[in-house]
Design brief:
7-stranded mixed beta sheet, 23% helix, Metallo-beta-lactamase, Chain A, alpha/beta, 214 residues, 12 strands, globular
Amino acid sequence: MVIAGKKLLFDPFITPNELAKGIDINNIKVDFILLSHGHQDHVADVETVYRNSKAQIVSTFEVVSWFSEKGLENGHAMNHGGSWDFDFGRVKMVNAVHSSSMPDGSYGGNPAGFVIQSGEDTFYYSGDTALHFDMKLLEEEFNIDFAFLPIGSNFTMGVEDANRAADFIGTKKVIGMHYDTFPPIKIDHEKAVATFKEHDRELILMGIGETINL
């Protein structure tokens, strides 16, 4: 994602992902890597992208510390409820209901999501999460233009709960994520889009490598 001329990458899981085998990780150059939690399918390509571009890692204290011990020292640690002004906009770390551990099994802190405010838009990147009532607080504090929400079920909320989450945060536009990568999270695309349309909301299902303007 490009915001105010800065390139942001969220939870990179590319080289181990069979669906993304056509993407060359070495061609990805970004300014910031935002990590919602420490699971392998969210941090697999952090080290390669970091070393290719010296991007700053933004995540929880535990995740940033883990990467720092591996020599990736350009990190900005945050924790739930905290906000920070970066040169692309303001980031607030918010709650997620999930789990978190690092690829080596060490403690990964608590999972998180991000609300990002810039001069262009305000959006919510939920990370992996279940539906939870704290999402209602986001509508009270922010005007969310769009949200990235997981829809694959099994490990996170599914389509129905993501639709309710969109209602909780007060947005009409959702970019679906965390689906189709593994057999337990494969979804019916047409049914998912129709479910959101029934509630006068738009669900965007991006293709691998696709670029869109929001």
